[in-house]
Amino acid sequence: MMMMKVSFTLLLTCTVHMLTFTVESLASCSSSSATEAYPSGYGDEHSSSCGASYSHEHDDLVPPKREVYGGGRIIDITHKIRSDLPSFGSSEGVGQFLWLPSSMKNGSFANISEMKMLTHTGTHVDAPGHFFDHYFDAGFDVDTLDLDVLNGPALLVDVPRDKNITAEAMESLNIPRGVRRVLFRTLNTDRKLMWKKEFDTSFVGFMKDGAQWLIENTDIKMVGVDYLSAAAFDNLISAHLVFLEGRDIILVEGLKLDDINPGIYSVHCLPLRLVGAEGSPIRCILIK
Ligand SMILES: [Zn+2]
C-alpha cells in the first residue's frame, strides 16, 4: 500500500556539523569549542577543537540508550528505526536505510549520512492523501497535519485481546466524550509484533465498523495503534477510508506501548515536514 519512497540527507545534523567545523576552523584549533548553544555536555571540554585526536582519547565512551527520561517522567513511545524493524508486506524488514557517503575514515571533514526508507517506516503518521488520490493531488500531505491534534492530553487504553477493534470492542471501552487522543494497546504489543522482522498479517487493528463507531460516537481525532496499520488486514482499505475521508482524524501507527500503565498522559508527536508525502516517520513521547 505504500509505494512512495523518500530519500533525504540528515540536513539538521549536517548543518550542526558544518557549523561546528567552521567555528573550529576559524578558531585555528583553539583549546575549547564550548559555545552558548552547547555550553556543556557534548564532551568537548577536554578536546582540542581539531577533533582528530579526540576519538583516540575516548575509546571507552558509551552513549546513553534510553527509553525513559527525567526519572520516568518522559516515556519514548517511538520505535527505534532499525534494519530488523518490520516493514508492511515484507518478510525482509526495513533493511538498510542509512549510508555514509561522506566518511571521516575516508578523509571527509565530517561524517554525513544519507537515508532512504518508506515514509511509513516504523512509528509513523498517515496523511489523508495515503488512501485518497484526490487528497494526495490537492496536497493533503503530512505537512498539513494539525499539530494541535498530535499534542495534548491522551488516553492509553487496553483493547480486549480476543478480537479486532470492532464496533462492539469500541463500545466496551467506554471512552468518554471530549477525549480527543487515544492510544489503543492491543494483542500486537503482547505478541511483540514490532520486534519481529517478518510482517505479520494477523495483527489486530480496526475493522470498518469499529472505525465508523469511533467517528459517530466519540470525539477522538488522534488514533494511535501498536502495529504498522490502524486498520486490520482484512479491512485494510475500508477502515482506512473511513478514518481518512473526513481529513480530521490522524492515524499514528507502530507505537511502542510496552510496559506503560493505561491512563491519562500528555502525548507529543511531531512528524517531519515532508512536502508531498502522505506519510512520515514520527517521534512520539508521553509525559506523565
Ligand atoms: Zn501508514
TrEMBL record:
<dbReference type="InterPro" id="IPR007325">
    <property type="entry name" value="KFase/CYL"/>
</dbReference>
<dbReference type="InterPro" id="IPR037175">
    <property type="entry name" value="KFase_sf"/>
</dbReference>
<protein>
    <submittedName>
        <fullName>Putative cyclase</fullName>
    </submittedName>
</protein>
<feature type="signal peptide">
    <location>
        <begin position="1"/>
        <end position="18"/>
    </location>
</feature>
<keyword id="KW-0964">Secreted</keyword>
<keyword id="KW-0272">Extracellular matrix</keyword>
<dbReference type="GO" id="GO:0019441">
    <property type="term" value="P:L-tryptophan catabolic process to kynurenine"/>
</dbReference>
<comment type="similarity">
    <text>Belongs to the Cyclase 1 superfamily.</text>
</comment>
<dbReference type="Pfam" id="PF04199">
    <property type="entry name" value="Cyclase"/>
</dbReference>
<dbReference type="GO" id="GO:0004061">
    <property type="term" value="F:arylformamidase activity"/>
</dbReference>
<keyword id="KW-0732">Signal</keyword>
